[in-house]
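Reply to thread "Modeling small-molecule complexes from scratch"

Following up on the discussion above, here's a worked example others can learn from. I took a protein sequence and the SMILES for magnesium ion and predicted the complex. Inputs first:
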Amino acid sequence: MDNSIKYNRKIVLFSSSVVMTCVLLIVVWVILYKNYGFSKKTQKFISKVEKLNGEIVHMDEVLTMSARMAVASGNVMWEKRYLDFEPKLEKSITEAIQLMPDEYKKLGASQTDAANIKLVEMERKAFGLVRRGEANAAHAILYSAEYKDQKQIYKDGIDKFVNLLNGQVETKTKRIEKRLYISLAFIFGVVVFLIICWLIVLRTINKWDKEIKILHEKELHSEKLASIGKLSATFAHEFNSPLQGVLYVLEMTVEKCANNKREEIDKEFVKMAVKECDRMAGLVRHLKDFHRPSTNVATLMDIHEVIEDVILLMNKRLQDRGVALKRKFEAGFPLINAVEDQIKQVMFNLIQNAEEAIPDEGGKITIITKRSDSNIKVSIKDTGGGIPDDKLPLIFEPFFTTKGAVKGTGLGLSVCHGIIKMHGGDISVDSNLGKGATFSFVLPVNS
Ligand SMILES: Nc1ncnc2c1ncn2[C@@H]1O[C@H](COP(=O)(O)OP(=O)(O)OP(=O)(O)O)[C@@H](O)[C@H]1O
Ligand SMILES: [Mg+2]
């Protein structure tokens, strides 16, 4: 798989999971909101039906009572009361009918209406008789068998009506419950689905993280090998002259010994040869250290010593290219907790880039160290060509190089970036096109 895809797929998976979670949460929220609206509307309907129910039953009783009291007492005040309540009852019944579904509206309505008309007629007739002082005739109407029959028909109609209203309430309540159960089942399903998805996503990301870590380690190592490849030519050159010298001293010594002229052996020459051997052994040791895969073990280290070790490896190459190296080290530096071989690799890459940026006429590299309370800062400043503005955002990307496939892998800075970030630090660049670039990294003192 392409490396950039490996780096990006984690972000794609994570962001699409977040988007999917947000979409599902919005759906859940819409369902809850709609259910809340529906149950609020239904509650309103139920309380209205209950209120109308009570009013209809109560006012019907009031009307019957008023008519009968008017007959019994002969007092016209009861007619007034009757006339007050009658339109109110009509209004409540009309309102209640509007709350019924269409098929209910017709059910038994004509019979009840006819009985109601007859009852009203009889009650008005009785009131007329009361007004004329014929209370007995009025009494006869209101207690007649026909009045009773019509009252019964009307009562049955009203009961049916009230039952239908109650039926409506029951249906709506059941509908709320059904909707609630369906919504709860859906929400439960969504939550379980999201939990499973996130477990899979986190496991996958974890797996990919491990893969990326392995990939990163491989990159780190192959980048080291590439650097060693670049160094080997310099090393061959660097080893050749002292080896010739040592060989010459040894041959001379052997010759003097063979001719029994040991006293003529130049001790200073032998000492110089030993010193050269020491230096070559040191170089080989450093190269071996550098070649080894990262220990990944953080230890307390002196950054200036690390820088000197790297300079030792690169000095010869810098001299050959006419690059002067200047140190501006701040005194009293604290030890830092870091993986030594990795910090060496960062220094190596940055100095190598600086050297490669310097033209053949030569130039200068300045290594500056500074400290603050919480971190240390190392800057590598060169007098090379600098970096164009449009390339600046790309240089820390893996495989970005302007040096051609043979000379550069384009991994140097991305490896530096990875190492410094892993140490809790930061790396940045300041470029002045045509005048040079300064790469700086900071590391926390207690990292
Ligand atoms: N000091 C510098 N001055 C100018 N350009 C630089 C400097 N350091 C890095 N660059 C630019 O950044 C690019 C990426 O650098 P990086 O070290 O990642 O890869 P590289 O040097 O091209 O290849 P490699 O390090 O694998 O040999 C370089 O090709 C170069 O264009
Ligand atoms: Mg490089």
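What I'd highlight from this example: The first strand starts at residue 299 and ends at 301. The pocket of adenosine-5'-triphosphate (ligand 1) is lined by residues 226, 349, 353-354, 357, 382, 384-387, 395, 400-403, 408-414, 437 (CB under 6 Å). Questions welcome below.
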